[in-house]
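The data are quoted verbatim for reference:
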Amino acid sequence: MLGLIPTTSQHHLQFLLSRFLAKFSAHLAYPASSEKTQTIWLLDKSCHWVQADLLIAHFASCRADYYPDRVTYNTPDNRRRQRLEISAKYIRVLKHGVWAHRQIAIFQEGALNRFHTGWSNFADWLNDSTGSQRKLTNHQAQCLFIEHFSRRLLVFHGKGTDFSCDAHPSTSVLSAVVRAAVGVNGGVIEAAMMHECVDYTHLKRYRSDLVREGVVLGAALDVAGMPAASNGDGNVAPVLPADPALAQLPVPQQQEAPAEGIPRGYVRLAVMDGKTIKHRKFALDICEAPLVNYKNGRFCEAHLNLRNVCGIVSCGRPVLQPGALTCDTQSHIDWQHQYENRFSRMSFPGVQRIIRRQQEHADGNTATGPSLRVELSALGDTPGDEVVHTFKAKTTYCLQIVQWACGFPIGWGKCYRFIAYDDACSLLRHIVTQDPSSPWLSTTKFIVDAWHCIGHCATDILCQLWCNPAPVNGSQPDLILVEEDANGTRHQTRAFNTETAEQLNSWLNGFESQLRQMSDINYDFFIQLQNKDLGLSDEFWAEATGD
């Protein structure tokens, strides 16, 4: 096998290389050459820097080079490409002679998961811990991170054997091509479609199951595990107020078990939520290309010429001088200064006053939380909050995650029986209003997760009736399990954990400061997730499908 060995005598080195080449030549139809050797620095698995000999097998016939962590080769059109060695023991972190044992990358992965440590902090910790005169630089730590996680992500997405890219790419290029392979700005994680887990997949349940298990059914608007909001009969349909969306939806019907011998089927629940972890993007909505400079840039490469145009979009005149944000029009200069200083002298009473004024002008029927929107002066006839400018890069709205109720991330995909979402009632109302015949209405039930359900309006019958996360009247037995307390009393409880998205969001909070400073490529690369797999038994599938 190819590898790295501590520096030895030239005779011993040639002996090892000859044995390796003889082994490879036995499997290939062309002879191999043993001319490529190199002395490099290696950060070994005990975190010590040692010098080692790098062995590279070169095959003259096909011009392929076999490194410990990759194979480079020529394509028919004479382009130089590479394939990654997925389970490489050693990983190159610098083209010019710096390598690391894979165990160092595993240490870095552990530091990331446990302590939310970025690559610069990891490099500092490693250097402080070893006390070596030779240091792992921040750039080398980043290269190690990208190289290691590229392999992890490709395997996770089932693309490890098919992936290839240009030979010896930079860190930014490698992360970009891996991101393109596994998903840009989201997408579906293919492994999630094959994931099997008892925490999000249950056998189909029916109302008769609840009755047989001895539960006392309640009202349609009540939620299992929460205080009853009504004392109605669970078998009586509630009186619905006038609501355009409700007119398109029939009252939920009780589900009865199928005839003997017919498979029960199974249900799955996915949870969806958003997290305001953002990254910067183009200053206007006309382009979605990445920024040239994510530190303080505003434009992509194709629109970089806009930095020489006045930041007030309606103006179009050249800037006053290189580096300026506006032209020489004094009103534009003054408005830009006001925009830049909008938070500089904001006191706490001032913040309270702005929020209070916004709430006074808000629609009384709309429940909104506190928000801070500084009021800017008008520019000519244009109100301050309607002035379109390029003084600052915009940001993405949020990170939207869909995952199974067990916590396994999905991405986007139409493959769920139930979807739990904090504002599912508004989503359902939108679907019904826009397209009453949408297949979503017949294939998927939208429910509000249990935590947010507490704060939804009791007068919103559509929410209480159609988006109930665990109705106790037997209309959705798939969402109910029966448990017996210490006194022998049977209670209905929620069958699924609808809070997995909130729990994941809480974990992601630790990475927010890092993610906000990343480019769109590194953001997508970093946010990829993995999870456990608690498989479903053959007995489960036999009862669910009849096979």
